[in-house]
Amino acid sequence: MPNSNWLHRLKELRILGIDPGLARVGYGVIDAGEGKIKMIDCGIIHTEKDHAEGERMVEIALDLRRLIRAWKPQLASVEKFFFYRSSTTISVVQARGVILMTLARFQIPIVEFPPMQIKLALTGSGRAGKDEVLMAVMRELNLQYPPKPDDASDALGAAITAWFQR
């Protein structure tokens, strides 16, 4: 975690949460302040499967730059990749590298949390299911409807966790 002394002094903070992937990068932007957290935006960066992997990485970087310029986050919270054996593991790790590089180019401080830590922060259990996490995100953001798709909800969870852990 970056030097968090400045985080404690801020009354409000705009946080960009990111759930990395290659086909879909979830993002969520929140404004957090004294006693309130508000969702500003959420969605996904989508890349086409029929494009070359390098082109997909460029698309992620370009779309993330657009989001950063539009919302001007003061902090980014990126979900750490949970390693498992899969044919897409390397591609997802590479996409995550593009995300971290893009955030660093904009000099946005980055915090990272593994999925279990996000679940623990939101629900009180590191083994919480998807539905429990979704309900916690909705509760914390006072949402009537679930954010869609799941990747966006996961990104919002990462952003909320950053606020809780600051």
Outline the structure in words.
- This protein is α/β, with parallel strands linked by helices and 166 residues long.
- 47% of the residues lie in helices and 23% in strands.
- It has six helices and five strands.
- Helix 3 (89-105) links the parallel strand 4 (75-79) and strand 5.
- Helix 2 (53-71) packs parallel to helix 3, helix 4 (115-123) packs across helix 6 (150-165) and helix 5 (130-141) crosses helix 6.
- The mean pLDDT is 92.
Q: What would you say about this model in short?
A:
By secondary structure, this protein is of the alpha/beta class. The protein has six helices and five strands, in the order H-E-E-E-H-E-H-E-H-H-H.
Alpha-carbon Rg, integer: 15 Å
Please report which band the strand proportion falls in: under 5%, 5-15%, 15-25%, 25-35%, 35-45% or over 45%: 15-25%
**Which regions are unreliable across 5 or more consecutive residues at pLDDT < 50?**
none
Q: Helix- and strand-based class?
A: alpha/beta
Order of neighbouring strands in the sheet with most strands: 3-2-1-4-5
Task: Give the helices and strands as they follow along the chain.
Answer: HEEEHEHEHHH
Largest sheet: 5 strands, mixed
Helix content: 40-55%
Kindly state the number of beta strands: 5
Total helices: the number is 6
Tell the overall outline.
Answer: globular
Mean pLDDT equals 92
N-to-C terminal Cα separation, in Å?
9 Å
Give descriptors for this structure.
single chain; five-stranded mixed sheet; 5 strands; 23% strand
